[in-house]
Design a protein that fits this description.
Layout (H helix, E strand, L loop, with lengths): L2 H4 L11 E9 L3 E8 L5 E7 L2 H16 L9 E5 L2 E4 L5 E2 L9 H20 L12 H15 L4 H10 L10 E3 L8 E4 L2 E5 L6 E3 L2 H13 L4 H12 L5 H21 L3 H15 L3
Antiparallel strand pairs: 1-2, 2-3, 3-5, 4-5, 6-8, 7-10, 8-9
């Protein structure tokens, strides 16, 4: 179904039609549009999938929004129809669009709020969830040795993982994860946190996978340690315990290997290799 076809019929839960106001983004796998009510100022976001994989992600995303409907800082599910997911908008702009260097104090406040929000997501015990379970151990056991052969300068990944991987045996894999928890998906308006968007990669797993990904994105932007620590200390209610610090580092290895393995063209690979080297230096 095209967005033009969709906009010609009323949205069932609203009992009225919405017209296309503008296209927000266009990608290989999906497009996004801003819709406006034909008789009021109400607006919605429509995400249009272009392949079956993204449609499957939309179905998972819709389930999560239903399960987490009590959390006010997430989009509300309006409709999930065919290849189109319709949501209420989260107001504002992404935190990634704000320069950290000139706004360090604001960044720290926003990340503290984001930490409380994502912890609320992690605290929900999913009821008979059909979401996939993420196994970091399976991924690293399959990929890490070959990865460090290809990139010998990252050899410390392998040794650190082998020395500490037993910690992962005691971590819970049963919580809802965002799956792509980064600065792009944290929204702010008027210097205040407004919400978290885009649960398209949602799955079940260890909550520290989400924590580690935001840390991964922060350190690779070379933001100050005080910004990173503001987030982690807010999430843990103080400095993380040694076991939590080790676990985050293991998940930093996971994100480094995953992202680099997804981008193996020479130019892009070099960029992601530099990011992995920053993680390597933290181990």
């Amino acid at each position: 179904m095209t967005i033009q076809e969709y906009s010609q019929q009323p949205i069932a839960s609203k009992n009225k039609a919405f017209v296309i106001e503008k296209q927000l983004s266009s990608g290989t796998d999906s497009d996004a549009y801003l819709l406006k009510s034909s008789d009021s100022a109400e607006k919605l976001i429509a995400k249009v999938a272009k392949n079956d994989l993204v449609i499957s992600k939309y179905h998972n995303e819709a389930k999560v929004y239903q399960e987490l409907s009590s959390l006010r800082f997430l989009p509300r599910l309006i409709e999930n129809k065919s290849n189109i997911l319709v949501l209420s908008p989260i107001e504002g702009i992404s935190l990634d669009s704000i320069e950290e260097e000139a706004n360090t104090d604001f960044y720290k406040v926003a990340l503290k709020d984001a930490a409380a929000a994502i912890k609320s997501v992690h605290s929900v015990n999913p009821d008979n969830s059909s979401l996939n379970v993420l196994s970091v151990e399976d991924f690293l056991n399959a990929k890490l040795q070959g990865f460090t052969i290809k990139f010998p300068e990252l050899h410390q990944f392998q040794s650190y993982y082998q020395e500490n991987k037993s910690i992962l045996l005691y971590r819970s894999n049963s919580r809802i994860l965002h799956g792509d928890f980064c600065l792009d998906h944290i929204f702010i308006e008027n210097q205040k946190f407004t919400g978290i968007i885009d649960f398209g990669d949602t799955c079940l797993g260890d909550p520290l996978v989400d924590v580690a990904y935001l840390v991964f994105k922060i350190i690779n932007k070379e933001y100050s340690e005080t910004v990173r620590d503001a987030f982690t200390n807010a999430y843990f209610g103080g400095e993380p315990k040694l076991e939590e610090q080790i676990t985050i580092k293991l998940y930093l290895i996971y994100w480094s290997v995953l992202r680099l393995s997804e981008h193996l063209t020479p130019e892009v690979s070099e960029k992601f290799k530099k990011k992995a080297q920053i993680v390597n230096g933290l181990l």
